[in-house]
Amino acid sequence: MNFTPTKINLFLIAKLPSAFICGVRVFKIDFESCVTTIKLNWINKNPFKSMFWAAQGMAAELATGIIIMKTIKDSKKNISMLVATNKAAFYKKATHRIFFECKEVEKAKIAVQKAIKTNESQTVWLNSIGKNKNDEIVSVFDFEWTLKVKN
Asked: Model-level pTM greater than 0.70?
């Protein structure tokens, strides 16, 4: 798969339909970061007229997961990936469109290279920061990814 927003958004329909239905989309991906977005709508709204935390989590996780997936693809190795742990903090109500950005490409590259070199399972924490249209931090998610070279 080519790592373009269009290709990844089509991938969501087939492989992560709940994220797609909730409105998660890839906004931008490049060599430095991945940005996902999710807009408040009736399917991801909580009773407090803001976005349900789990909907934010799907967009945040995707921003980190795409970085891991692209790094694995670039390595040309068969490596499994799985979220082991996550943490989140919420600072403002998510009431409109939220953009989640992960800028930790280098951390992902180091973890993948170490998994390949040692042939041992590796973990890496990647951070995804969610901001609203006013560039205010709404929520911050951290995901611990596990990586293992498949033989």
From this structure: yes
DSSP conformational letter for 48: T
> Are 22 and 39 spatial neighbours (Cβ–Cβ below 8 Å)?
no
Which CATH number characterizes residue 136's domain?
3.10.129.10
The string over 97-118, giving b where at least 16 C-beta atoms fall within 10 Å of a residue's C-beta and e elsewhere, is bbbbbbbbbebbbebbeebbee
Q: For the chain, what is the domain count?
A: 1
Q: How far apart are the first and last CA of the chain?
A: 22
What are the two backbone dihedrals, phi and then psi, of residue 69, each rounded to the nearest 5 degrees? -60, -45
How far is the C-alpha of 42 from the C-alpha of 51, rounded, in Å? 9
The tokens of 124 are what? 């890496």
pLDDT in tens, 85-142: 999 999 999 999 999 999 999 999 999 999 999 999 999 999 999 999 999 999 999 9
Residue range of the domain that includes 37: 5-149
Q: Round to whole Å and give the CA distance between 113 and 33.
A: 18
Interaxial angle between packed helices 53-75 and 105-118, expressed in degrees from 0 to 180 and rounded to the nearest 10: 50
Distance between CA atoms of residues 67 and 80, nearest Å: 14
